[in-house]
């Protein structure tokens, strides 16, 4: 394994807390498969078999769920150092529930289900980190399901900002995101999102300044 790949893998979310000794054993003993993808290339379609986890070494991939013809919802984006399919690979059906697509030129390293089991059996610090990542991902997916189940665009906007926003010095939650990206995140059309944001601003629920959206109302009143 070349030095650049070694360092990238060492910094990845799954290996960065594994001891140096165990990590060196893993990279020497466990076979990896590395593939390159061009921007917009599909890694896996929804329904494809899942037999490995993927770790993004370079670039970025995204998980998209098709709702209707020509419409998709972005579930999440996976940046360099992050991984995907860690839950699906051990599910009963091990089929991809969404499409994985490269959002930029990317390099992805794959580890088979069998080798993940081997690492979990042999390295306690690896399994501890792996289970922690699984728990976090399940929590994120639960939030996404809650978001997509909401019928009101207004509720979707407020729910998303309540989870992803950061508190400013005035105690207000704000987020900086392009309107199209926000529309993809909450599963609505961009024109519908823009109309609702303008209404909410007119009703003194939020302020918009370029890509920055700041909620100035009490979010809890609307999400209870």
TrEMBL record:
Record's superkingdom? Bacteria
In terms of SUPFAM superfamilies, this protein maps to: cAMP-binding domain-like (SSF51206), Winged helix' DNA-binding domain (SSF46785)
Q: One GO CC annotation, please?
A: cytosol
What the entry lists under CDD domains is as follows: CAP_ED (cd00038)
Q: Which InterPro entries match?
A: cNMP-bd_dom, cNMP-bd_dom_sf, Env_Response_Regulators, HTH_CRP, RmlC-like_jellyroll, WH_DNA-bd_sf
Q: Which residues form the Cyclic nucleotide-binding domain?
A: 14-119
Single annotated GO MF: DNA binding
Provide the alphabetized UniProt keywords: DNA-binding, Transcription, Transcription regulation
Could you identify this protein by its name?
A: Cyclic AMP-binding regulatory protein (Cyclic nucleotide-binding protein)
